[in-house]
Amino acid sequence: MTALIKHDEENPGQPASLLRDSGRADFGPLKALTEEEIAPFLIRLSDTNRKFEEAYPGLQIQRQPVQTLYGGANLYKPGSARKMADLALQHVKTYAPDFVHLARGLNLPGSDSLPQTSNATRTLQQELESPDAKRSDAWLAYTVYRRMLRKLETEAVEDHRIDFEDGYGVRDDDEEDGHAISTASAMAEGMLAGSLPPFVGIRIKALTEEARIRSMRTMDLFISTLAKVTGGDLPQPFKITLPKVTTPEQVSVLADYLSLIEKVNGLRVGVLDIELMIETVQSIMTPEGTCAIPALVKAGQGRVTAAILGTFDYTASCNISSAYQDHRHPSVDFARHMMQLSLTGTDVAICDGITNIMPIAPHRGNELTPAQIEQNRQVVHAAWLAHFNNIMHSLRLGFYQSWDLNPAQLPVRYAAVYYFFLSGLSDATDRLSTFINQAAQASMVGNTFDDAASAQGLLNFFIAGVNCGALTEEEVLATGITMEELHAKSFLKIVENRTNGI
Q1: Amino acid 11: pLDDT
Q2: How far is CA 331 from the centre of its chain?
Q3: pTM of the full predicted structure?
Q4: Contact at 8 Å (CB) between 297 and 338?
Q5: Whole-angstrom Cα distance, residue 481 to residue 15?
Q6: Cα(69)–Cα(60) distance, rounded to whole angstroms?
Q7: Is 175 within 8 Å of 134 (Cβ atoms)?
Q8: Which of 42, 256, 346, 444 has the most neighbouring CB atoms within 10 Å?
Q9: pLDDT score at 46
Q10: Nearest to 303 by CA among 267, 337, 340
Q11: Does the pLDDT at position 109 exceed 90?
Q12: Helices (H), 60-105
């Protein structure tokens, strides 16, 4: 039985009785509320909706790099990005001279059925280059390989950090002073020559009691030297990466310190961004049992643009034995999800950690035996596969950027990212196209049901794919949306356009 309120027709403002029956209720006329009566509710909704939209502006269409390569400050020289790109290309030529070798090294679907000889591989390659080539496992492996090579040739290093922390080590003050000055001069030279990667910065030491003085001195020396050489025109964006954060006060001190550095060196206010490394349990959870990440970001006073998961430091802080510290440890997935809950939809990007297994061959030289050559191949391919699986794990969890330790990891970085997007492209295109064609109606493709929320997720897939360079403009347009609609990043706006015949 349903309890319904019946209104008195003679006194429409008052409920007359409760009508309890299983049949149809006969409602009398309801009083229409005036605009004055509705206004307070609309104002309250507008206020809360505006605050939400300010805090969560949504998925950003601007470019986010898919990788950050970091290396010790002692190794940084002018032209470092080109040198690292050359090393990555040479690594591919040695251990994946064609797409078949890459597919087998990464254990891609269908790799067992690919040709065994060079001649057969060349024949298949010619077939796959045809515009009419069928989208098969072989086509996917070949396309991933081609796009990966093109990326290494044109922009192998998207993001680079000069490291004064773990990748640099503990050195005497005179030596670190010298490297802070020399690396800043080298970066200035690269900036003036136009040879820097699109994203650059430095990772300082932690602001712990032991390292705070050294960390702040290195920042001062580096930025003041860079500003002096360039006349105050720093690379943009420029990132200061803060490791091993434990308290909001460390972040607020860094923000205030950077403000002072900007003022003293005549730099534009806010030109120096902050990245937070989430690699301690205290950066995940406060002593009171609340999530620590929002307070850390707030302490940055608007400077925090990214949060990076330090996989192995985090597992160590969880008291996990080194033998079991791993990129895919369950504790790390917990940290990832806490980062997502805190930051997804905000203007702070999330970034995953490293794979610590390097694809470095054990035998070197020009006089290797066949057995040594084969062992080199096995070691490198095993490291490739571990890196590939870690990247795919991150991508499936919504982390589209990660850090890398060595240029030899870059080929697999791009191969994994491109494989992730290209392998899901056909299904995502069909589902998004169907939903758009049916405008505001829910749809089925095969046995998959899509509503507006899942359609927005499909749109986000294309936004992220274009953002990282995995998908081309033509592949986006095949869904039926325009590039302008992609940049608007709103599925509801696309539906509105179709409903209005746009």
Answers
A1: 47
A2: 20
A3: 0.86
A4: no
A5: 51
A6: 22
A7: no
A8: 346
A9: 95
A10: 267
A11: yes
A12: 80-95, 99-105
